Structures are given as structure tokens and as C-alpha cells.
Amino acid sequence: MKRALLLPLLGVLAACGSQVAQNVPVPATSVPPVVTTTSAAPAVPPAPQPVKDGACPYLPTTFVAEANGQRVPKVKLSTDEPHPACFFYANATEVQLTVRVYAGDQGVAKKIVNEAAPDGSQPANSPTGWTGGYVSSNSGVVYAVAKSDAAVVVITNQKQSIKARRIAEEAIKNLGL
């Protein structure tokens, strides 16, 4: 209501002269500032690389040799934290099995699984509560599952998905994920 009365009054004062109009306060309208926040989605960490010799902290070499059906003369680890990726070798240079464990962001965990076993792969749902997929090829099998903020990806040179699944289940059990 005050604005409706004030606007005609300002018009009359402006007509009387510029001196009078300068002394009349003009109502200010305030527009709240626009605040935009953007947070970049966490990025998928790069694929782990074998860096140092050592024993896998969550998979015994004897278990891997039995489950994958190959002798394991050497194991290397990545520098990933808190769980390094484990690389089990068939000989001095050929990796027979890789196990990657991720724990952190739920979106990243799903992306890791989707990259390893993309749409169109066979569904994987073991152990109970974990979901993902597996892909068979001439070079072996990839078995990838996620639950909440964790992901486990097993890559084996063996053609049977049961071997990769069994190793993933053991890693998940031993890590308490």
C-alpha cells in the first residue's frame, strides 16, 4: 500500500524540480543473490598397477592357487589404500589373476563395476547382497560386484566364471565387507 502512494508522490516531486526529488528516499528492492554450488562427482581411480612384491593381505596364495587352478610363484601389490590390488602371477611375467578392492564412494564403486562388467554382461549377485556382472572372453573372465560403497573386481585368465566368483567371495569374506 505504501508503495502505491509513494510512487505518485515521487512523480509530483520530480515535476516540481530536481532539488526536491533528490531529498525523497526511493524504495529499494533487494534481489537475493543466486548461489549455485557444484560438486564434482568423485572420479574413478585409475586402474591399479603392480608395484611391489608382497603377500596379498586378504587372499592367501594357497587359496588362489587352488581356486584358480594354477601355481602362484609370485604376488605383487598396488599402492592403493586401504586395500591394495593383488596381482597373482603364473610365471615371471604373466599375471593369472588380479583382485581389485575399492571402498569409498557408492557412486564410484558402481562405476568401477560397470566399467569392468558393462551393460550386457551376465548378471552377478554373489555373495548375497552384492550385485554386478561377469564377462567371459578368450582371455578369461572378469567378475565384478558392488555393495554400498565397496566394489570387488576379479580378473582371471581362466575361462570358468565360478573360479572368479569364488575368489571374489573369499576376498569379501576376509575383508569383512
Give the helices and strands, then pairings:
Blueprint (H helix, E strand, L loop, with lengths): L1 H15 L1 H5 L29 E2 L7 H8 L5 E4 L8 E4 L5 E9 L2 H11 L5 E3 L6 E7 L2 E8 L2 E7 L4 H15 L2
Helix pairs in contact: 3-5
Tell me about this structure.
The protein is globular, with a radius of gyration of 31 Å. α3 runs antiparallel to α5. The protein has five helices and eight strands, in the order ααβαβββαββββα. It has 177 residues and is an alpha+beta fold. The chain has an eight-stranded antiparallel beta sheet, with helices on both faces. It is 31% helix and 25% strand. It starts with a helix and ends with a helix. The chain has helices spanning 2-16, 18-22, 61-68, 106-116, 161-175, and strands at residues 52-53, 74-77, 86-89, 95-103, 122-124, 131-137, 140-147, 150-156. A hairpin with an 8-residue loop joins β2 (74-77) and β3 (86-89).
Order of helices and strands: HHEHEEEHEEEEH
| Silhouette | globular
Structural class: alpha+beta
Number of helices: 5
**Average pLDDT for all residues:** 85
Low-confidence stretches: 1-16
N-to-C CA distance: 65 Å
Count all strands and give the number: 8
Strands ordered across the widest β-sheet: 1-2-3-4-8-7-6-5
What's the main sheet like? 8 strands, antiparallel
- Tell me the Rg in angstroms: 31 Å
Strand content: 15-25%
- What share of residues is helical? 25-40%
